[in-house]
Design goal:
The chain is an alpha/beta fold. The protein contains 6 helices and 12 strands. Helix 5 runs parallel beside helix 6. It starts with a strand and ends in a 19-residue tail after the last strand.
């Protein structure tokens, strides 16, 4: 099975449609599938439900899809860096399903593992639990959360081979590995693409069985969400 595609547009071909659910990996702006997001924007698909830890920033990442109003619902844990997101949400133009960050991660992991729902103490007695089943186990209340599965998962890896085995670096390991398992079709953009057998087996995080399509994106951009530097000391 040929998994490597020449570019992001061809990798998304015949998969994208209005109203679909898309998972986008990464944490903040680290490890986001930026090239694939740009191709998703170019596709013109609308009414998208996007599962992502955050909503990017203005002009970068998922911020691009918010600018074109292609997203109708976000399932996220943090959205504080995007002015367009705030404007659309406050105007009632964008639906938001907020999750505690650990709960969001577990919902995605559960979906990838074939677990339809699980119980957690996080959120009991808060707005998070409204409308959800609460059950008592061993004297403690737990709220039920549903596992998440997407039509497509878009992930970014530091290194991978042509069979789809992937290695992530540092903060990019947040959400990318679990999202790779939770998509009906997973597309990976890879900074360094090698032939099978060239990856150290013990270093592989996502086995190729979870990845259906791959694009090579050497020299990918490294954005800084909030640049903080130390003040110069007086001479």
């Amino acid at each position: 099975m040929q998994k490597v595609y020449s570019d992001a547009r061809s990798a998304l071909a015949a998969l994208v449609k209005d109203g679909m659910t898309v998972m986008c990996g990464g944490f903040g702006l680290c490890g986001i599938p930026e090239t694939l997001i740009e191709a998703l924007k170019e596709s013109g698909a609308k009414n998208l439900t996007v599962v992502s830890n955050n909503a990017g920033v203005d002009g970068v990442g998922l911020g691009l899809l918010l600018e074109t109003r292609q997203i109708s619902k976000m399932i996220s844990s943090y959205v504080g860096e995007n002015k367009i997101f705030a404007q659309q949400y406050l105007a009632g133009e964008l639906e938001l399903e907020f999750n505690p960050q650990g709960t969001l991660a577990e919902r995605i992991r559960a979906g990838g593992a074939g677990i339809p729902a699980f119980f957690t103490r996080t959120g009991v007695g808060t707005l998070i639990a409204e409308g959800k089943e609460v059950r008592n186990f061993d004297g403690e209340d737990y709220v039920m959360e549903r596992g998440l599965v997407a039509d497509i998962s878009l992930v970014h890896a530091w290194k991978g081979d042509t069979e789809g085995n992937l290695i992530y670096r540092k903060t990019a390991r947040n959400f990318n590995p679990m999202m790779a398992t939770a998509g009906k079709v997973t597309i990976a953009e890879v900074e360094h693409l090698v032939e099978p057998g060239q990856l150290e087996p013990d270093s592989i995080i996502t086995p190729g069985v979870f990845v259906q399509r791959i694009i090579h994106v050497p020299g990918s951009k490294k954005h800084i969400e909030q640049r903080t530097v130390r003040k110069r000391e007086a001479a």
